């Protein structure tokens, strides 16, 4: 019995730790369509970068199995919907970049989602959400989140909407 063609297993990708298919020029990437739910099988993945393509639709629920993920960069695509609340299960996430998409705030309050990413042992240090259809983090929410990060022990410097900042550089995680 052969594995399904859409699964990463046949190529030996199940132990992959870094997958960077980003392109610098928005829309220059050749990848389009929905984000592949099958990436969830790569449970050792720590860096997933798919910026600058033409991905559309919402974030796959199956990606919550990516518990080792430290960097998620889906910027400069055409993703829609809101950031699902179940993504808070990604407790090791340090860098979340979803700027320049078509995302909207969730009805339950998007800032609460980010606040949870700072709770307990969470490690969020970079959050880039600007340039979406809706304002995902307003100035008041950004100040609140940064205050919460500084109040942690040890304090975390949370950078919001500054993708060029050293805190948003994925290189240390590669």
From TrEMBL:
It is found in: Cytoplasm, Cytoskeleton, Cilium axoneme. This is Leucine-rich repeat-containing N-terminal plant-type domain-containing protein. Keywords: Leucine-rich repeat, Repeat. Its main location: cytoplasm. It comes from the Eukaryota. GO terms for cellular component: axoneme. The keyword GTP-binding does not apply.
């Amino acid at each position: 019995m052969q594995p399904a063609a859409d699964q990463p297993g046949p190529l030996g990708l199940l132990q992959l730790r870094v997958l960077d298919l980003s392109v610098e020029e928005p829309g220059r990437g050749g990848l389009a369509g929905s984000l592949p739910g099958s990436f969830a099988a790569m449970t050792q993945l720590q860096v997933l970068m798919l910026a600058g393509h033409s991905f559309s639709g919402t974030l796959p629920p199956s990606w919550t199995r990516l518990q080792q993920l430290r960097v998620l960069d889906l910027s400069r695509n055409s993703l829609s919907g809101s950031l699902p609340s179940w993504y808070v299960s990604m407790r090791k996430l340090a860098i979340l970049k979803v700027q320049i998409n078509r995302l909207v705030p969730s009805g339950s309050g998007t800032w609460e989602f980010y606040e949870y990413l700072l709770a307990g042992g969470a490690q969020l240090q970079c959050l880039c959400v600007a340039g979406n259809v809706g304002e995902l983090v307003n100035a008041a929410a950004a100040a609140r989140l940064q205050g919460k990060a500084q109040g942690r022990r040890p304090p975390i410097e949370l950078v919001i909407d500054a993708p060029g900042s050293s805190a948003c550089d994925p290189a240390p995680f590669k």
